[in-house]
Amino acid sequence: TLAVTFADIGFKVRGLDSDAQVINLLNSGRPHFFEQGLEQIFKDNFKNNLNIVENFKAENNCDAYFIAVGTPLDKKTKKPDLRHIKSAAENIGGVLKFGDAVILRSTVPIGTTRKVVIPILEKKSGFKAGTDFFVAFAPERTVEGKALEELKKLPQVIGGINWTSVDLVANIFNHLTHSVVLVDSLEEAEMVKLVNNVYRDVTFAFANELALVCHKLNIDTRRVIEAANRGYDRGQVPWPSPGVGGVCLEKDPFLFIGSAQAAKYTPKLAQNARAISGLIVDFVAAEVSSF
């Protein structure tokens, strides 16, 4: 979505992916996932301002590189798998020029840009980050179904290795939106993405725990929430649900918890929220199977 949006406003964009099936679909003129309005804007720009490439060498070399790859969790340990991040950094590091910019968009544990990505870029390129090339973290915060709209409407949060990097990346995003929020470090920008999703996960966990309590007290949860929310803007309780709204809300709290534990603090609220949302799945399953 970011690639087609930049292409649509006039940037020359090169897209690279390691998945051959994704590449084949894109080269056939079709996006590999559904997003409202995406297929048309992709077709409008494909093989014009937007091209899918096998590498970033020669005519495919860029001035700014965005890393937007997955950071899945190990199912047992709940630790993030950073292989895709490292692979992308190695790929980009091999083609970096003096004065290029690298912007990380992926959701990562705090410190990943500074401690993982930058060392790889420096080693592969032979350049010094912040001096020879620029690095920033600008989290992707769009919601599925409204991504193209929100890319232009939502504030873009930007943190960099230095203020020169922040200014440069802010100037890129100013072509997309006039709403940018500048923070003081890479780590602050990384935390912003986790805050947005962990906050929502904790809020949904409250609604789920409310449902469990109301069930025990033989109270109608829906009527309670409707009454509590009506005309009361200070606390809009969401509906309880066995799901919390997508894979990110299930994953990102563990990145937040892991980052905190690395700093020798265990965030109990985030941990308990994840546990409660697990309980509600068991509760719904038991209720359904009892009929």
Can you give a write-up of this model?
This protein is α/β, with parallel strands linked by helices. The chain is built from eleven helices and seven strands. It has helices spanning about 1-10, 20-25, 40-45, 85-95, 110-125, 145-155, 165-175, 185-215, 220-230, 245-260, 270-290, and strands spanning about 15, 50, 65, 100-105, 135, 155-160, 180. The strands form two sheets. Strands 3-4-5-6-7 form a five-stranded mixed β-sheet, with helices on both faces. Helix 4 links the parallel strand 3 and strand 4 (about 100-105). Helix 1 crosses helix 3 (about 40-45), helix 8 packs across helix 10 and helix 8 packs across helix 11 (about 270-290). The longest helix has about 30 residues, at about 185-215. The protein is globular, with a radius of gyration of 21 Å. The mean pLDDT is about 95.
Rough outline: globular
**Percent range of helical residues:** 40-55%
Instruction: Please state roughly what percent of the residues sit in beta strands, choosing from under 5%, 5-15%, 15-25%, 25-35%, 35-45% or over 45%.
Output: 5-15%
On the 0 to 100 scale, the average pLDDT is 94
Structural class, from secondary structure content?
Answer: alpha/beta
Number of strands: 7
Q: Give the spatial strand order of the biggest sheet.
A: 3-4-5-6-7
What is the string of helix and strand elements?
HEHHEEHEHEHEHEHHHH
> Regions with pLDDT < 50 over 5+ consecutive residues?
none
How big is the Rg?
21 Å
Distance from N terminus to C terminus (CA atoms, Å) equals: 44 Å
Q: What's the total helix number?
A: 11
Largest sheet: number of strands, sense, barrel closure: 5 strands, mixed
